Each structure stands twice: as C-alpha cells, then as structure tokens.
Amino acid sequence: MHLVRADPIISPRQAERLLANLWQLAIGSRLALHVIQLGHCDGPPALAVATPNRALERDAIDLVATGTRSEVQEADIVPELICAAPSIGVYHLQPTARGLQSNSESWGWDRADNLLHLYHLLRRTCPGVIAGVGLVFVPLQHMQGAAVLTAYAAGPAGSPVLRLAYRLAATYAGTGVKVRRPLMQRRWLRRCMRSQVSLGLAPLRGHGIIRVEEMSALWHPPLASSSPAQPAS
C-alpha cells in the first residue's frame, strides 16, 4: 500500500479522468483505492492505492500523486495493522448502477461533493483508530468494472469502531449503494485489504458492475470548492 495526502482537485471531470486512467492501468489485474484516516494526527485523510502487482501500485500512486500534487509514502504495514486490530467494524456497500451520463451531467455532483461528509467524518477520527473506505475493482470491457466497496474501522478493544464504520457507510446513502453487514467481518476485511475481487462469484458476493464515471462518484479526492480536508482560512 502507498499513501498520498488527500489534497483537493478542481472538478468532478478531473476525478472521472483520474479513475479512467487508473482503470486503464489496471487492465488485466485488480486495484484497491482507499480514503483512509490513520488516527494519529488531526490532519486530512489520505488516499491509498494497493494491489498485489507492485509495478501497477507504483504507477497508480504516481498518477494519484500527480493529480493531487502530493508526495508518496509507503505504508505496507497499514493493512496488517488494520486486520490485526482487537476491534473492527466492517460494512459492505454494494454499488448499484445509476446510469450516469458522461461528466456527471445527469447527476451534477459537481454542485455538491457527495464525499463531503465522508472526509469530514474521517478528519474527526479518534486517536488510535484507523478508519476508511476501500473501493476494489477489476476492469471489464466498455469502461466498466466489477467493484466492491467496504467501509471499515479498526482500533483498540472497546473502541466504538462498529458505529464509526456504519457512520462512514451512511455517508454514501445518496450515492447509489446497498449497505450490508458481512457475517464474517474479519474475512471480508482481509479480502478488502488484499484487493480481492472474485469475478466468477461476483453475483453471489454482491459485487457491482458499474461504469468508470460511477466509480469516480464512490472514490475521489475532495473537491476544492467544498473540501473538508483543508482547514478553513
């Protein structure tokens, strides 16, 4: 896993182009995109990229870093810290197709960033708790992907991580997802951290087949016009 600071971008069109480029890079493999707060500072959340293909991971994080003008940091230990935490909370957010037009013309999330509350909530994560949302996808034909979205929180024993994970999932209420709580949460979390997507079992596992521009509504850097990742001036 590699991290970059979640600095703002200028528009939804830039987010769609960023996801399209990542989709192109990941053809023949799989890619996980995270918005994550490590819980050890009051700074903004980070954007993370993870995949078993190390060359792809470096190319993908360089692409994200270029779009956000941020420095890259290695964070290979973070997935292990999350999976080994005494308390975890995990929710499966099944993406559903919304039939968005190119450049989000039919939805207009450029007028109100749909991840505004997600970034705001992550910024307030308690010290010692790691929380975030991970979008794992496998590129398919016609600019589509088999995608699975997971909201998670991990922390010390007794931490209210399940409630935090649900609050993160709730920020996607108007974006186009179905929220479910997996029965085997640690197994689901490990699959997320390992960037696993099963194409053969996609219908059974609840993976969504969605277009790239719809994926950009589920994961993108904050928008400059309404970024909670930046303190008020």
Which CATH class applies here? Alpha Beta
* Residue share in β-strands: 25-35%
Order of helices and strands: EHEEHEHEHEEHEHHEH
Q: Look at the structure and give the mean pLDDT.
A: 85
* Total of DSSP H or I helical runs spanning 4+ residues: 8
Uncertain stretches: 102-110, 227-233
Number of strands: 9
Q: Main sheet?
A: 9 strands, antiparallel
* C-alpha termini separation: 32 Å
Helix content: 25-40%
CATH topology: Vanillyl-alcohol Oxidase, Chain A, domain 3
Number of domains: 1
- Under the CATH scheme, the architecture is 3-Layer(aba) Sandwich
Radius of gyration using CA atoms only: 16 Å
Gross morphology is globular
Helix-strand makeup class: alpha+beta
Describe the protein's topology.
Elements: E1 2-5, H1 12-25, E2 31-37, E3 46-50, H2 54-68, E4 72-74, H3 78-83, E5 87-95, H4 116-123, E6 130-140, E7 144-155, H5 161-170, E8 177-180, H6 185-193, H7 202-205, E9 208-211, H8 212-218
Antiparallel strand pairs: 1-3, 1-4, 2-3, 2-6, 5-7, 5-8, 6-7, 7-9
Helix pairs in contact: 1-2, 1-8
